[in-house]
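Per reviewer request, we include the raw input and output of the structure prediction for the construct analysed in the revised manuscript.
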Amino acid sequence: MKILKGHTKILLMLIDIIIIGIAYYLTSFLVYDIFYINSAILKERIINTIFISIFSYEIFLNLFQSYKNITKYETGWDYVRYILICLMSSAFVSAINMLFDLNLLSVKMNLLAATVIAGMFITYRLVIRFLLNSLIPNSREGKEPVEKAKNLLIIGGGNAASQIIKSIKSSMKNVYNIIGIIDDDKSKWNYAISGIPIIGGREKILEICKASKVDVIFFSISNIKNEDKKDIIHICQNTGAKIRILPSTEDIIKNKKILENLRDVEIEDILGREPIVLDNKNIKELIENKIILVTGGGGSIGSELCRQIAKYNPAKLVIFDIYENNLYNIEMELKANYPQISVVALVGSVRDKAKLENVFDTYKPYIVFHAAAHKHVPLMEASPLEAIKNNIFGTYNVVNLCDKHNVKRFTLVSTDKAVNPTNIMGATKRMCEMIVQAKNRVSNTEYVAVRFGNVLGSNGSVVPLFKKQIASGGPVTVTHREITRFFMTIPEAVSLILQATAYADGGEIFVLDMGEPVKIYDLAESLIKLSGFEPNVDMPIKITGLRPGEKLYEELLMSEEGLQSTKHNKIFVAEPLDISQKQIEEKIEMLKELIKDENISKETIKRTIKQVVPTYHEPKDK
Protein backbone atom coordinates (compact mmCIF):
# COMPACT_ATOMS: atom_id res chain seq x y z
CA MET A 1 0.00 0.00 0.00
CA LYS A 2 2.87 2.39 0.85
CA ILE A 3 4.47 1.74 -2.59
CA LEU A 4 1.15 2.50 -4.32
CA LYS A 5 0.67 5.68 -2.30
CA GLY A 6 3.89 7.14 -3.71
CA HIS A 7 3.04 6.28 -7.31
CA THR A 8 -0.71 6.95 -7.43
CA LYS A 9 -0.46 9.49 -10.28
CA ILE A 10 1.59 7.13 -12.49
CA LEU A 11 -0.81 4.26 -11.80
CA LEU A 12 -3.88 6.36 -12.67
CA MET A 13 -2.18 7.67 -15.86
CA LEU A 14 -1.44 4.10 -16.98
CA ILE A 15 -5.05 3.04 -16.36
CA ASP A 16 -6.33 6.10 -18.27
CA ILE A 17 -4.02 5.36 -21.23
CA ILE A 18 -5.19 1.74 -21.36
CA ILE A 19 -8.85 2.89 -21.19
CA ILE A 20 -8.33 5.30 -24.11
CA GLY A 21 -6.86 2.53 -26.27
CA ILE A 22 -9.59 0.04 -25.36
CA ALA A 23 -12.33 2.65 -25.93
CA TYR A 24 -11.24 3.35 -29.51
CA TYR A 25 -11.07 -0.35 -30.38
CA LEU A 26 -14.51 -0.94 -28.82
CA THR A 27 -16.11 1.92 -30.74
CA SER A 28 -14.49 0.68 -33.95
CA PHE A 29 -16.18 -2.68 -33.47
CA LEU A 30 -19.50 -0.90 -32.94
CA VAL A 31 -19.21 1.25 -36.10
CA TYR A 32 -17.26 -0.80 -38.69
CA ASP A 33 -17.72 -4.35 -39.91
CA ILE A 34 -15.20 -7.04 -38.95
CA PHE A 35 -13.48 -7.12 -42.36
CA TYR A 36 -12.76 -3.41 -42.45
CA ILE A 37 -11.45 -3.46 -38.86
CA ASN A 38 -8.86 -6.04 -39.85
CA SER A 39 -7.68 -3.90 -42.76
CA ALA A 40 -4.25 -2.30 -42.41
CA ILE A 41 -5.58 1.14 -43.34
CA LEU A 42 -8.13 1.28 -40.49
CA LYS A 43 -5.67 -0.20 -38.00
CA GLU A 44 -3.23 2.58 -38.85
CA ARG A 45 -5.95 5.23 -38.46
CA ILE A 46 -7.02 3.77 -35.08
CA ILE A 47 -3.43 3.58 -33.79
CA ASN A 48 -2.67 7.15 -34.91
CA THR A 49 -5.91 8.38 -33.35
CA ILE A 50 -5.10 6.57 -30.07
CA PHE A 51 -1.64 8.16 -29.84
CA ILE A 52 -2.96 11.65 -30.58
CA SER A 53 -5.89 11.10 -28.18
CA ILE A 54 -3.62 9.93 -25.35
CA PHE A 55 -1.59 13.11 -25.82
CA SER A 56 -4.77 15.25 -25.90
CA TYR A 57 -6.49 13.57 -22.92
CA GLU A 58 -3.37 13.76 -20.74
CA ILE A 59 -3.01 17.48 -21.52
CA PHE A 60 -6.54 18.19 -20.31
CA LEU A 61 -6.38 15.78 -17.35
CA ASN A 62 -3.26 17.54 -16.09
CA LEU A 63 -4.58 20.98 -17.00
CA PHE A 64 -7.58 20.36 -14.73
CA GLN A 65 -5.28 18.82 -12.08
CA SER A 66 -7.29 15.61 -12.04
CA TYR A 67 -4.36 13.55 -10.79
CA LYS A 68 -4.11 15.76 -7.71
CA ASN A 69 -7.58 14.66 -6.60
CA ILE A 70 -7.80 12.24 -3.67
CA THR A 71 -9.97 9.57 -5.25
CA LYS A 72 -11.42 8.56 -1.88
CA TYR A 73 -13.01 12.01 -1.46
CA GLU A 74 -14.15 12.74 -5.04
CA THR A 75 -17.67 14.13 -5.39
CA GLY A 76 -20.28 14.56 -8.11
CA TRP A 77 -18.61 17.72 -9.44
CA ASP A 78 -15.33 15.81 -9.98
CA TYR A 79 -17.17 13.28 -12.16
CA VAL A 80 -18.83 16.07 -14.15
CA ARG A 81 -15.33 17.46 -14.72
CA TYR A 82 -14.17 14.12 -16.19
CA ILE A 83 -17.04 14.29 -18.69
CA LEU A 84 -16.02 17.84 -19.69
CA ILE A 85 -12.38 16.75 -20.04
CA CYS A 86 -13.39 13.91 -22.38
CA LEU A 87 -15.56 16.19 -24.54
CA MET A 88 -12.83 18.84 -24.81
CA SER A 89 -10.17 16.21 -25.59
CA SER A 90 -12.38 14.72 -28.31
CA ALA A 91 -12.96 18.18 -29.80
CA PHE A 92 -9.21 18.88 -29.65
CA VAL A 93 -8.39 15.64 -31.52
CA SER A 94 -10.96 16.40 -34.21
CA ALA A 95 -9.62 19.96 -34.56
CA ILE A 96 -6.04 18.72 -35.01
CA ASN A 97 -7.21 16.20 -37.58
CA MET A 98 -8.93 18.93 -39.63
CA LEU A 99 -6.07 21.42 -39.33
CA PHE A 100 -3.26 19.04 -40.24
CA ASP A 101 -5.20 16.47 -42.32
CA LEU A 102 -3.83 13.56 -40.29
CA ASN A 103 -6.40 11.07 -41.59
CA LEU A 104 -7.56 10.20 -38.06
CA LEU A 105 -10.93 8.75 -37.15
CA SER A 106 -14.02 10.87 -37.83
CA VAL A 107 -15.63 13.41 -35.49
CA LYS A 108 -18.47 10.95 -34.91
CA MET A 109 -15.99 8.23 -33.90
CA ASN A 110 -14.12 10.61 -31.57
CA LEU A 111 -17.35 11.70 -29.88
CA LEU A 112 -18.49 8.09 -29.44
CA ALA A 113 -15.09 7.13 -28.02
CA ALA A 114 -15.19 10.13 -25.65
CA THR A 115 -18.55 8.90 -24.31
CA VAL A 116 -17.11 5.43 -23.64
CA ILE A 117 -13.92 6.89 -22.10
CA ALA A 118 -15.90 9.20 -19.78
CA GLY A 119 -18.03 6.27 -18.60
CA MET A 120 -14.96 4.12 -17.96
CA PHE A 121 -13.06 6.96 -16.22
CA ILE A 122 -15.94 7.53 -13.81
CA THR A 123 -16.70 3.83 -13.29
CA TYR A 124 -13.20 2.76 -12.28
CA ARG A 125 -12.75 5.79 -10.03
CA LEU A 126 -16.06 5.02 -8.31
CA VAL A 127 -14.88 1.42 -7.81
CA ILE A 128 -11.62 2.67 -6.25
CA ARG A 129 -13.55 5.10 -4.03
CA PHE A 130 -15.90 2.32 -2.91
CA LEU A 131 -12.98 0.01 -2.09
CA LEU A 132 -11.17 2.71 -0.15
CA ASN A 133 -14.26 3.82 1.80
CA SER A 134 -15.98 0.49 2.38
CA LEU A 135 -13.50 -2.37 2.32
CA ILE A 136 -10.19 -0.88 3.43
CA PRO A 137 -10.18 0.44 7.01
CA ASN A 138 -8.92 3.95 7.69
CA SER A 139 -5.23 3.88 8.47
CA ARG A 140 -4.10 4.93 11.94
CA GLU A 141 -0.79 6.38 12.95
CA GLY A 142 1.24 4.25 15.31
CA LYS A 143 -0.07 1.07 16.85
CA GLU A 144 -3.03 2.43 18.78
CA PRO A 145 -5.82 -0.12 19.31
CA VAL A 146 -8.81 0.34 17.04
CA GLU A 147 -11.88 1.22 19.13
CA LYS A 148 -15.13 -0.53 18.36
CA ALA A 149 -17.47 1.61 16.28
CA LYS A 150 -20.41 3.03 18.23
CA ASN A 151 -23.87 1.90 17.16
CA LEU A 152 -25.72 4.97 15.90
CA LEU A 153 -29.42 5.63 15.36
CA ILE A 154 -30.48 8.69 13.35
CA ILE A 155 -33.79 10.46 14.03
CA GLY A 156 -35.16 12.13 10.90
CA GLY A 157 -34.99 10.93 7.32
CA GLY A 158 -34.31 14.24 5.57
CA ASN A 159 -31.45 16.12 3.95
CA ALA A 160 -29.57 16.50 7.24
CA ALA A 161 -29.61 12.73 7.77
CA SER A 162 -28.31 12.24 4.22
CA GLN A 163 -25.40 14.60 4.87
CA ILE A 164 -24.60 12.93 8.20
CA ILE A 165 -24.55 9.49 6.56
CA LYS A 166 -22.28 10.69 3.74
CA SER A 167 -19.89 12.32 6.22
CA ILE A 168 -19.69 9.19 8.36
CA LYS A 169 -19.21 6.87 5.37
CA SER A 170 -16.47 9.04 3.91
CA SER A 171 -14.37 9.65 7.02
CA MET A 172 -15.87 8.24 10.23
CA LYS A 173 -16.95 4.69 9.38
CA ASN A 174 -14.65 3.35 12.11
CA VAL A 175 -16.27 5.69 14.65
CA TYR A 176 -19.96 5.05 13.97
CA ASN A 177 -21.90 2.01 12.80
CA ILE A 178 -25.24 3.35 11.53
CA ILE A 179 -28.05 1.00 12.60
CA GLY A 180 -30.88 2.81 10.84
CA ILE A 181 -33.10 5.87 10.58
CA ILE A 182 -36.30 6.75 12.45
CA ASP A 183 -38.91 8.96 10.75
CA ASP A 184 -42.61 9.47 11.53
CA ASP A 185 -43.43 9.87 7.83
CA LYS A 186 -44.91 6.46 6.92
CA SER A 187 -44.31 7.05 3.20
CA LYS A 188 -40.56 6.78 3.87
CA TRP A 189 -40.71 3.48 5.76
CA ASN A 190 -38.92 0.50 4.17
CA TYR A 191 -36.91 2.85 1.95
CA ALA A 192 -33.27 3.77 2.48
CA ILE A 193 -30.93 6.77 2.39
CA SER A 194 -27.48 5.91 1.00
CA GLY A 195 -28.11 2.29 1.90
CA ILE A 196 -29.29 2.99 5.48
CA PRO A 197 -32.86 1.71 6.06
CA ILE A 198 -35.68 3.88 7.42
CA ILE A 199 -37.01 1.51 10.07
CA GLY A 200 -40.17 3.22 11.30
CA GLY A 201 -41.56 5.97 13.52
CA ARG A 202 -40.77 7.15 17.04
CA GLU A 203 -42.57 4.16 18.54
CA LYS A 204 -39.68 1.98 17.27
CA ILE A 205 -36.93 3.91 19.08
CA LEU A 206 -36.90 1.92 22.34
CA GLU A 207 -37.17 -1.42 20.53
CA ILE A 208 -34.35 -0.68 18.08
CA CYS A 209 -32.05 0.77 20.75
CA LYS A 210 -32.49 -2.31 22.93
CA ALA A 211 -32.17 -4.87 20.12
CA SER A 212 -29.16 -3.21 18.45
CA LYS A 213 -27.52 -1.87 21.63
CA VAL A 214 -27.48 1.69 20.31
CA ASP A 215 -24.77 3.86 21.91
CA VAL A 216 -25.52 7.21 20.26
CA ILE A 217 -28.63 8.89 18.83
CA PHE A 218 -28.36 11.78 16.37
CA PHE A 219 -31.51 13.94 16.33
CA SER A 220 -31.24 15.41 12.82
CA ILE A 221 -34.53 17.31 12.44
CA SER A 222 -34.14 21.10 12.60
CA ASN A 223 -37.67 21.96 11.46
CA ILE A 224 -40.04 20.31 13.95
CA LYS A 225 -42.74 21.40 16.39
CA ASN A 226 -41.33 21.83 19.87
CA GLU A 227 -43.94 19.51 21.37
CA ASP A 228 -42.93 16.70 18.98
CA LYS A 229 -39.27 17.41 19.65
CA LYS A 230 -39.88 17.20 23.39
CA ASP A 231 -41.74 13.91 23.03
CA ILE A 232 -39.08 12.24 20.84
CA ILE A 233 -36.22 13.41 23.05
CA HIS A 234 -38.08 12.09 26.11
CA ILE A 235 -38.29 8.66 24.42
CA CYS A 236 -34.58 8.84 23.53
CA GLN A 237 -33.72 9.68 27.14
CA ASN A 238 -35.15 6.33 28.24
CA THR A 239 -32.82 4.38 25.93
CA GLY A 240 -29.65 5.12 27.88
CA ALA A 241 -27.95 6.24 24.64
CA LYS A 242 -26.01 9.49 24.32
CA ILE A 243 -28.18 12.04 22.48
CA ARG A 244 -26.76 14.61 20.07
CA ILE A 245 -29.05 17.17 18.45
CA LEU A 246 -28.98 19.31 15.32
CA PRO A 247 -29.55 23.00 16.11
CA SER A 248 -31.56 25.51 14.09
CA THR A 249 -31.28 25.90 10.31
CA GLU A 250 -29.61 29.28 10.90
CA ASP A 251 -26.85 27.64 12.95
CA ILE A 252 -26.35 24.97 10.28
CA ILE A 253 -25.92 27.63 7.57
CA LYS A 254 -23.17 29.30 9.63
CA ASN A 255 -21.20 26.04 9.67
CA LYS A 256 -21.58 23.79 6.64
CA LYS A 257 -19.93 20.77 8.33
CA ILE A 258 -23.09 19.20 9.65
CA LEU A 259 -21.42 16.82 12.12
CA GLU A 260 -19.77 19.80 13.80
CA ASN A 261 -23.21 21.39 14.28
CA LEU A 262 -24.47 18.50 16.40
CA ARG A 263 -24.60 19.46 20.09
CA ASP A 264 -25.66 17.97 23.38
CA VAL A 265 -29.35 18.18 24.26
CA GLU A 266 -30.07 21.15 26.51
CA ILE A 267 -32.86 21.45 29.05
CA GLU A 268 -34.58 23.98 26.74
CA ASP A 269 -35.06 21.20 24.17
CA ILE A 270 -37.20 19.14 26.51
CA LEU A 271 -39.46 21.95 27.76
CA GLY A 272 -41.42 21.87 24.50
CA ARG A 273 -42.13 25.62 24.39
CA GLU A 274 -42.97 27.10 20.99
CA PRO A 275 -40.75 29.98 19.79
CA ILE A 276 -41.90 33.53 20.50
CA VAL A 277 -43.16 35.60 17.55
CA LEU A 278 -42.51 39.32 18.01
CA ASP A 279 -43.86 42.48 16.46
CA ASN A 280 -40.41 43.62 15.39
CA LYS A 281 -41.68 46.81 13.76
CA ASN A 282 -43.00 48.19 17.08
CA ILE A 283 -39.80 47.30 18.92
CA LYS A 284 -37.64 48.81 16.18
CA GLU A 285 -39.57 52.10 16.28
CA LEU A 286 -39.07 52.18 20.05
CA ILE A 287 -35.29 51.60 20.02
CA GLU A 288 -33.78 52.57 16.65
CA ASN A 289 -31.59 55.70 16.85
CA LYS A 290 -32.50 56.19 20.54
CA ILE A 291 -30.27 56.31 23.61
CA ILE A 292 -31.01 53.29 25.79
CA LEU A 293 -29.87 52.73 29.39
CA VAL A 294 -29.83 49.24 30.93
CA THR A 295 -29.14 48.99 34.66
CA GLY A 296 -27.79 45.64 35.81
CA GLY A 297 -26.70 45.19 32.20
CA GLY A 298 -24.00 42.67 33.08
CA GLY A 299 -26.40 40.14 34.65
CA SER A 300 -28.07 37.23 32.92
CA ILE A 301 -31.25 39.16 32.02
CA GLY A 302 -29.53 42.53 31.62
CA SER A 303 -26.84 41.22 29.24
CA GLU A 304 -29.44 39.49 27.05
CA LEU A 305 -31.44 42.74 27.03
CA CYS A 306 -28.33 44.46 25.70
CA ARG A 307 -27.84 41.81 23.00
CA GLN A 308 -31.40 42.07 21.75
CA ILE A 309 -31.52 45.86 21.99
CA ALA A 310 -28.33 46.05 19.90
CA LYS A 311 -30.11 44.25 17.04
CA TYR A 312 -32.45 47.24 16.67
CA ASN A 313 -29.61 49.72 16.10
CA PRO A 314 -29.87 52.20 19.03
CA ALA A 315 -27.95 55.47 18.74
CA LYS A 316 -26.18 54.62 22.00
CA LEU A 317 -26.41 51.75 24.47
CA VAL A 318 -25.38 52.65 28.01
CA ILE A 319 -24.73 49.62 30.25
CA PHE A 320 -24.63 50.25 34.00
CA ASP A 321 -23.55 47.56 36.46
CA ILE A 322 -21.72 47.22 39.77
CA TYR A 323 -19.90 44.00 38.79
CA GLU A 324 -17.04 44.94 36.48
CA ASN A 325 -16.22 41.46 35.13
CA ASN A 326 -19.69 40.83 33.69
CA LEU A 327 -19.85 44.42 32.48
CA TYR A 328 -16.54 44.06 30.65
CA ASN A 329 -17.63 40.77 29.02
CA ILE A 330 -20.87 42.15 27.58
CA GLU A 331 -19.13 45.35 26.46
CA MET A 332 -16.48 43.39 24.51
CA GLU A 333 -19.11 41.06 23.02
CA LEU A 334 -21.30 43.91 21.77
CA LYS A 335 -18.40 45.91 20.37
CA ALA A 336 -17.24 42.84 18.44
CA ASN A 337 -20.70 41.93 17.11
CA TYR A 338 -22.12 45.44 16.60
CA PRO A 339 -19.17 47.74 15.80
CA GLN A 340 -21.54 50.35 14.33
CA ILE A 341 -23.23 50.92 17.71
CA SER A 342 -21.85 53.23 20.38
CA VAL A 343 -21.60 51.09 23.54
CA VAL A 344 -20.81 52.75 26.88
CA ALA A 345 -20.05 50.53 29.89
CA LEU A 346 -20.20 52.24 33.30
CA VAL A 347 -19.37 50.75 36.69
CA GLY A 348 -21.71 51.91 39.43
CA SER A 349 -24.48 51.03 41.85
CA VAL A 350 -28.13 52.03 41.62
CA ARG A 351 -27.83 52.87 45.33
CA ASP A 352 -25.45 55.71 44.43
CA LYS A 353 -27.81 58.57 43.63
CA ALA A 354 -24.99 61.00 42.72
CA LYS A 355 -23.48 58.53 40.24
CA LEU A 356 -26.87 57.90 38.66
CA GLU A 357 -27.48 61.65 38.40
CA ASN A 358 -24.21 61.97 36.48
CA VAL A 359 -25.20 59.15 34.11
CA PHE A 360 -28.58 60.72 33.34
CA ASP A 361 -27.04 64.21 32.94
CA THR A 362 -24.33 62.93 30.59
CA TYR A 363 -26.23 60.51 28.37
CA LYS A 364 -29.89 61.63 28.57
CA PRO A 365 -31.47 58.20 27.95
CA TYR A 366 -34.73 57.92 26.02
CA ILE A 367 -35.68 54.54 27.50
CA VAL A 368 -34.47 52.88 30.71
CA PHE A 369 -34.59 49.14 31.37
CA HIS A 370 -34.09 48.51 35.08
CA ALA A 371 -32.70 44.98 35.60
CA ALA A 372 -30.38 45.76 38.53
CA ALA A 373 -31.51 43.86 41.63
CA HIS A 374 -30.58 41.29 44.23
CA LYS A 375 -32.61 38.22 43.21
CA HIS A 376 -31.32 35.26 45.23
CA VAL A 377 -34.04 34.32 47.74
CA PRO A 378 -32.02 32.55 50.49
CA LEU A 379 -29.24 35.16 50.42
CA MET A 380 -31.73 37.99 50.76
CA GLU A 381 -33.39 36.17 53.66
CA ALA A 382 -29.99 36.20 55.35
CA SER A 383 -29.30 39.86 54.41
CA PRO A 384 -32.73 41.54 54.22
CA LEU A 385 -31.40 45.10 54.60
CA GLU A 386 -29.29 44.63 51.46
CA ALA A 387 -32.40 43.62 49.52
CA ILE A 388 -34.20 46.75 50.74
CA LYS A 389 -31.27 49.06 49.96
CA ASN A 390 -30.55 47.66 46.51
CA ASN A 391 -33.97 46.64 45.23
CA ILE A 392 -36.29 49.24 46.77
CA PHE A 393 -34.04 52.28 47.12
CA GLY A 394 -32.11 51.50 43.93
CA THR A 395 -35.39 51.37 42.00
CA TYR A 396 -36.65 54.49 43.76
CA ASN A 397 -33.51 56.39 42.69
CA VAL A 398 -33.77 55.33 39.03
CA VAL A 399 -37.55 56.00 38.91
CA ASN A 400 -37.14 59.54 40.26
CA LEU A 401 -34.29 60.35 37.89
CA CYS A 402 -36.35 59.15 34.92
CA ASP A 403 -39.04 61.64 35.94
CA LYS A 404 -36.53 64.44 36.48
CA HIS A 405 -34.82 63.93 33.11
CA ASN A 406 -38.02 63.37 31.08
CA VAL A 407 -37.23 59.79 30.07
CA LYS A 408 -39.84 58.52 27.61
CA ARG A 409 -40.34 55.08 29.15
CA PHE A 410 -39.09 53.09 32.14
CA THR A 411 -39.39 49.28 32.35
CA LEU A 412 -38.91 47.40 35.61
CA VAL A 413 -37.83 43.77 35.36
CA SER A 414 -39.92 42.09 38.07
CA THR A 415 -40.58 38.52 39.20
CA ASP A 416 -43.42 36.11 39.94
CA LYS A 417 -42.10 36.05 43.50
CA ALA A 418 -43.67 39.50 43.90
CA VAL A 419 -47.10 37.82 43.81
CA ASN A 420 -48.20 37.20 47.42
CA PRO A 421 -44.52 37.18 48.44
CA THR A 422 -43.28 34.80 51.13
CA ASN A 423 -39.71 36.08 51.15
CA ILE A 424 -37.89 39.39 51.49
CA MET A 425 -36.67 39.39 47.89
CA GLY A 426 -40.22 38.94 46.53
CA ALA A 427 -41.58 41.58 48.91
CA THR A 428 -38.97 44.13 47.81
CA LYS A 429 -39.83 43.48 44.16
CA ARG A 430 -43.52 43.93 44.96
CA MET A 431 -42.65 47.26 46.53
CA CYS A 432 -40.78 48.17 43.35
CA GLU A 433 -43.95 47.46 41.34
CA MET A 434 -45.89 49.72 43.67
CA ILE A 435 -43.29 52.50 43.26
CA VAL A 436 -43.55 52.22 39.48
CA GLN A 437 -47.34 52.34 39.33
CA ALA A 438 -47.62 55.23 41.79
CA LYS A 439 -44.99 57.28 39.94
CA ASN A 440 -46.78 56.75 36.65
CA ARG A 441 -49.77 58.70 38.03
CA VAL A 442 -47.75 61.89 38.59
CA SER A 443 -45.06 61.80 35.87
CA ASN A 444 -44.82 62.37 32.12
CA THR A 445 -42.57 59.32 31.94
CA GLU A 446 -44.38 56.06 31.12
CA TYR A 447 -43.59 53.55 33.86
CA VAL A 448 -44.24 49.82 33.40
CA ALA A 449 -43.19 46.56 35.03
CA VAL A 450 -42.76 43.13 33.44
CA ARG A 451 -43.23 40.13 35.70
CA PHE A 452 -42.12 36.58 34.93
CA GLY A 453 -40.82 33.42 36.60
CA ASN A 454 -37.52 31.57 36.56
CA VAL A 455 -35.30 31.73 33.51
CA LEU A 456 -33.17 28.79 32.46
CA GLY A 457 -29.46 29.43 32.69
CA SER A 458 -29.70 32.62 34.74
CA ASN A 459 -27.25 33.14 37.57
CA GLY A 460 -29.90 32.27 40.16
CA SER A 461 -31.41 29.32 38.28
CA VAL A 462 -31.24 25.74 39.55
CA VAL A 463 -30.02 24.50 36.15
CA PRO A 464 -26.40 25.78 36.43
CA LEU A 465 -26.31 24.46 40.02
CA PHE A 466 -27.50 21.01 38.92
CA LYS A 467 -24.92 20.93 36.11
CA LYS A 468 -22.11 21.73 38.56
CA GLN A 469 -23.31 19.07 40.97
CA ILE A 470 -23.48 16.47 38.18
CA ALA A 471 -20.00 17.44 36.94
CA SER A 472 -18.58 16.97 40.44
CA GLY A 473 -20.17 13.53 40.82
CA GLY A 474 -23.31 14.47 42.76
CA PRO A 475 -25.47 14.37 44.68
CA VAL A 476 -27.97 16.64 42.95
CA THR A 477 -29.87 18.54 45.64
CA VAL A 478 -33.60 19.34 45.47
CA THR A 479 -35.29 21.13 48.35
CA HIS A 480 -38.59 19.21 48.10
CA ARG A 481 -39.81 16.37 45.90
CA GLU A 482 -43.02 18.25 44.99
CA ILE A 483 -41.59 21.76 44.51
CA THR A 484 -42.58 23.33 41.17
CA ARG A 485 -41.52 26.42 39.26
CA PHE A 486 -42.34 28.23 36.03
CA PHE A 487 -39.51 28.35 33.48
CA MET A 488 -38.66 30.09 30.24
CA THR A 489 -35.39 30.72 28.45
CA ILE A 490 -33.48 33.97 28.92
CA PRO A 491 -33.86 35.04 25.24
CA GLU A 492 -37.58 34.24 25.41
CA ALA A 493 -38.10 36.32 28.58
CA VAL A 494 -36.12 39.26 27.22
CA SER A 495 -37.98 39.18 23.89
CA LEU A 496 -41.25 39.50 25.78
CA ILE A 497 -39.84 42.32 27.95
CA LEU A 498 -39.07 44.29 24.78
CA GLN A 499 -42.47 43.49 23.30
CA ALA A 500 -44.29 44.52 26.48
CA THR A 501 -42.30 47.76 26.59
CA ALA A 502 -43.37 48.49 23.02
CA TYR A 503 -47.04 47.94 23.98
CA ALA A 504 -46.92 50.09 27.12
CA ASP A 505 -48.99 53.22 27.71
CA GLY A 506 -47.76 53.61 31.27
CA GLY A 507 -48.83 52.13 34.61
CA GLU A 508 -49.11 48.50 33.49
CA ILE A 509 -47.73 45.43 35.17
CA PHE A 510 -47.22 43.06 32.28
CA VAL A 511 -47.39 39.38 33.17
CA LEU A 512 -45.69 36.85 30.91
CA ASP A 513 -47.33 33.50 30.21
CA MET A 514 -44.81 31.02 31.57
CA GLY A 515 -46.63 27.92 30.35
CA GLU A 516 -47.01 24.88 32.54
CA PRO A 517 -45.15 24.65 35.88
CA VAL A 518 -42.21 22.23 36.00
CA LYS A 519 -41.41 19.93 38.92
CA ILE A 520 -37.83 20.61 39.99
CA TYR A 521 -37.31 16.93 40.81
CA ASP A 522 -38.28 16.00 37.23
CA LEU A 523 -35.93 18.70 35.97
CA ALA A 524 -33.09 17.19 38.00
CA GLU A 525 -33.84 13.72 36.60
CA SER A 526 -33.82 15.06 33.02
CA LEU A 527 -30.47 16.80 33.47
CA ILE A 528 -28.94 13.67 34.97
CA LYS A 529 -30.18 11.58 32.01
CA LEU A 530 -28.91 14.19 29.54
CA SER A 531 -25.50 13.82 31.17
CA GLY A 532 -25.52 10.08 30.51
CA PHE A 533 -26.36 8.90 34.04
CA GLU A 534 -29.26 7.04 35.60
CA PRO A 535 -31.00 9.05 38.38
CA ASN A 536 -30.56 7.52 41.85
CA VAL A 537 -28.43 4.73 40.34
CA ASP A 538 -25.34 6.44 38.90
CA MET A 539 -26.23 9.86 40.31
CA PRO A 540 -28.16 10.33 43.58
CA ILE A 541 -30.82 13.02 44.11
CA LYS A 542 -30.85 14.34 47.65
CA ILE A 543 -33.89 16.08 49.23
CA THR A 544 -32.61 18.89 51.48
CA GLY A 545 -35.83 20.61 52.67
CA LEU A 546 -37.31 24.00 51.78
CA ARG A 547 -35.02 26.98 52.35
CA PRO A 548 -36.00 30.11 54.30
CA GLY A 549 -38.67 32.07 52.43
CA GLU A 550 -39.11 29.40 49.77
CA LYS A 551 -42.57 28.40 48.52
CA LEU A 552 -43.47 24.88 47.55
CA TYR A 553 -45.58 26.22 44.66
CA GLU A 554 -45.20 29.60 42.97
CA GLU A 555 -48.40 31.52 42.30
CA LEU A 556 -49.94 30.76 38.93
CA LEU A 557 -49.42 34.05 37.13
CA MET A 558 -52.42 33.43 34.91
CA SER A 559 -54.84 33.17 37.87
CA GLU A 560 -54.32 36.70 39.18
CA GLU A 561 -57.58 38.69 39.32
CA GLY A 562 -58.18 41.31 36.67
CA LEU A 563 -55.67 39.90 34.20
CA GLN A 564 -56.34 41.21 30.70
CA SER A 565 -55.00 40.07 27.33
CA THR A 566 -52.83 42.16 24.99
CA LYS A 567 -52.06 41.97 21.28
CA HIS A 568 -49.51 39.23 22.10
CA ASN A 569 -50.81 35.85 23.26
CA LYS A 570 -47.93 35.46 25.75
CA ILE A 571 -48.34 38.87 27.43
CA PHE A 572 -51.08 39.91 29.85
CA VAL A 573 -51.76 43.00 31.97
CA ALA A 574 -52.51 42.85 35.68
CA GLU A 575 -55.10 45.17 37.19
CA PRO A 576 -53.43 48.46 38.26
CA LEU A 577 -52.76 49.06 41.94
CA ASP A 578 -54.72 51.82 43.64
CA ILE A 579 -51.76 53.48 45.36
CA SER A 580 -50.71 57.12 45.46
CA GLN A 581 -47.29 58.74 45.36
CA LYS A 582 -47.92 60.07 48.88
CA GLN A 583 -48.44 56.54 50.21
CA ILE A 584 -45.23 55.42 48.53
CA GLU A 585 -43.29 58.26 50.11
CA GLU A 586 -44.66 57.33 53.53
CA LYS A 587 -43.53 53.73 53.02
CA ILE A 588 -40.10 54.91 51.83
CA GLU A 589 -39.70 56.97 55.03
CA MET A 590 -40.49 53.88 57.12
CA LEU A 591 -37.83 51.92 55.26
CA LYS A 592 -35.28 54.74 55.60
CA GLU A 593 -35.61 54.51 59.36
CA LEU A 594 -35.30 50.75 59.15
CA ILE A 595 -31.98 50.66 57.26
CA LYS A 596 -30.28 53.09 59.63
CA ASP A 597 -29.64 50.30 62.14
CA GLU A 598 -27.53 47.41 60.82
CA ASN A 599 -28.14 45.48 64.04
CA ILE A 600 -31.91 45.56 63.77
CA SER A 601 -33.55 42.15 64.22
CA LYS A 602 -34.94 40.17 61.29
CA GLU A 603 -38.29 39.97 63.05
CA THR A 604 -38.50 43.79 63.13
CA ILE A 605 -37.55 43.94 59.45
CA LYS A 606 -40.26 41.45 58.54
CA ARG A 607 -42.89 43.32 60.56
CA THR A 608 -41.99 46.56 58.77
CA ILE A 609 -42.02 44.83 55.38
CA LYS A 610 -45.47 43.48 56.21
CA GLN A 611 -46.66 47.06 56.82
CA VAL A 612 -45.08 48.28 53.58
CA VAL A 613 -46.18 45.30 51.48
CA PRO A 614 -49.51 44.01 52.89
CA THR A 615 -49.49 40.88 50.68
CA TYR A 616 -46.22 39.66 52.22
CA HIS A 617 -46.60 36.59 54.47
CA GLU A 618 -44.48 33.78 55.87
CA PRO A 619 -44.53 30.60 53.71
CA LYS A 620 -47.04 27.95 54.80
CA ASP A 621 -45.28 24.95 53.23
CA LYS A 622 -42.29 23.83 55.25
